[in-house]
Amino acid sequence: MSELFGNQKEMLKQLIKALHLGADPEMLKSRFRTLLGEIGPADIARAEQELIAEGMPADEIRRLCDVHLAVLREAVEKEKPGEGPGHPIYILLKEHEYVKGAARDLAEVIALLERASDWGDVEGDLERLDALLADFREYNKHKVREENCLFPVLEKHGVTGPPSIMWMEHDQQRAAVKAATDALAQRGAVAFAEFKAAILPHLKALAEGVPSHFYKEENILFPTALRVISEDEFKAIKASMDDLGYCSFTPPDAIGAREEFQAQVGEGEIRLPSGAMTPVELEAVLNTLPVDITFVGADDTVRYFSMGKERIFPRTPSIIGRSVQLCHPQKSVHVVNRILEEFKAGRRDVAEFWIQMNGRLIHIRYFPVRDREGRYLGTLEVTQDITDIQKITGQKRLLDE
Fold this sequence. Notes:
Elements: H1 6-20, H2 25-36, H3 41-53, H4 58-76, H5 88-115, H6 123-138, H7 140-156, H8 161-185, H9 192-228, H10 231-244, H11 252-255, E1 270-272, E2 275-277, H12 279-288, E3 292-297, E4 302-305, H13 333-345, E5 351-357, E6 360-370, E7 376-385
Antiparallel strand pairs: 1-2, 3-4, 3-7, 5-6, 6-7
Helix pairs in contact: 1-2, 1-3, 2-4, 3-4, 3-9, 4-8, 4-9, 5-6, 5-9, 6-8, 7-8, 7-10, 8-9
């Protein structure tokens, strides 16, 4: 694959900027070919990324991506993602195949809806549409895996532009799926013409946008990933994908054997299944939790308690090693023993209570702590002041801050 350096890269960026200013893509094709001869997906990704860094909005890059992919279609298709079953890219590609089929089916339903004049014309088609939208909702698991497993590793290698554009398109797809689902739920409650006007734009956005999105992933994002991500990193990506889970339509033979995540551990760090921290960091994290936690070992003795800034119940180091039964009033010890017995026997997974204390509502929960094989290790007590949480209504998004 070709590498872009110096003037070549700058000239590629200038051609993309020319597209931004409205140049005719057909007129630029020969200039692209003359300049580069053969262009690699990683080169396109790098040029896009630098344009974002120079101030071109990511949303504009996303729009231009469609245009200059058409210009460079022949070039980028010369390198196709490979790999076999069990590889993250292979799994994603197999899921693409299914969703592409759903997009084709959706296009057929759209054509039927456009020709229909009343509810009677589309009675069976709406059931088919309901099933297709369910597939597109299930496809969200695919997007979540890309965003949380693949994109972070690409970003560690300095590839930030293409993932940000793909994530932007993911959100657009989510919005279209939700809007179409909401519109479909109103069928029968509105006039047919109103229903069509409400749902068709969102269905078309999916039927047309998803295949275009997949084209960019398959010809730029995935080949770039295969180029820059190491085999060990792909194993870690696979482990995190296994942990998040797959779509109902993901072929089992494509998933392959399960991978176990192994975090890289620095000097003085504690290895955990999902990462690593120093003892200082771990203590600070536990003390920052908006709850009080106390851990009682399998022998019913207190082993640990967090030390947050505002504790609900008093705890002192002198309780470490103390029998949990002695930490409760005698009148409630029989309840404590019953809960612990049920936890140890595997008959119960939570016990919860709530009390009024000093005008505040306190929620107390007990959870059995078990290892991966299900063996009982102890009990975790979680105490939280939920007075203000109960007052929450509506929604507040991150961007509302």
